[in-house]
Design goal:
globular, 7 strands, alpha+beta, Alpha-D-Glucose-1,6-Bisphosphate, Chain A, domain 4, single chain
């Protein structure tokens, strides 16, 4: 099983960051790679079990299911149902922690998945840098701090 872990410090209070990322359908608002997103069957975007169906700016389509959402822990966990990346059993968690020194946020995003053995290194690199870290950089810019 492949594992990806990326963390970042965001110069904004945890409540502000959570308000930006909590919406499971909100990826186009804070990531640089999602063109559009919708929740299937018009379900609420914070309902555990809902499925987001989104199009990447490069034309790829991904479907993900919300597995857990915690306002208490500032965390969400989801799985990939369909993706052009060639991953299986993909489970990811995005979680925030308050940093009291400077009223900032520690953000961590991790994932585990199965794939062809020869693709582990390239997929870990791609997801870690081009997805998770790119999203954190974009989020920081959108928070304007």
């Amino acid at each position: 099983m492949a594992k990806v872990y990326v963390s970042s410090v965001l110069n904004a209070p945890v409540a502000d960051v959570w308000a930006r990322i909590r919406n499971f359908n909100g990826l186009p608002d804070w990531t640089p790679f999602v063109a559009e997103s919708r929740i299937e069957q018009n379900q609420p975007s914070d309902k555990v079990g809902c499925i987001r169906n989104f199009t990447l700016k490069d034309g790829g389509r991904i479907r993900e299911q919300l597995l857990a959402l915690s306002d208490y822990d500032f965390a969400q966990t989801y799985s990939i149902l369909e993706s052009p990346m060639g991953v299986e059993n993909y489970i990811a968690t995005l979680r925030l922690f308050p940093i009291t020194d400077g009223n900032r946020t520690f953000a961590e995003w991790s994932a585990e998945f199965d794939c062809e053995p020869g693709r582990v290194s390239s997929l870990v690199q791609h997801i870690g840098q081009n997805v998770f870290q790119a999203a954190f950089r974009s989020l920081q810019a959108k928070l304007g701090r």
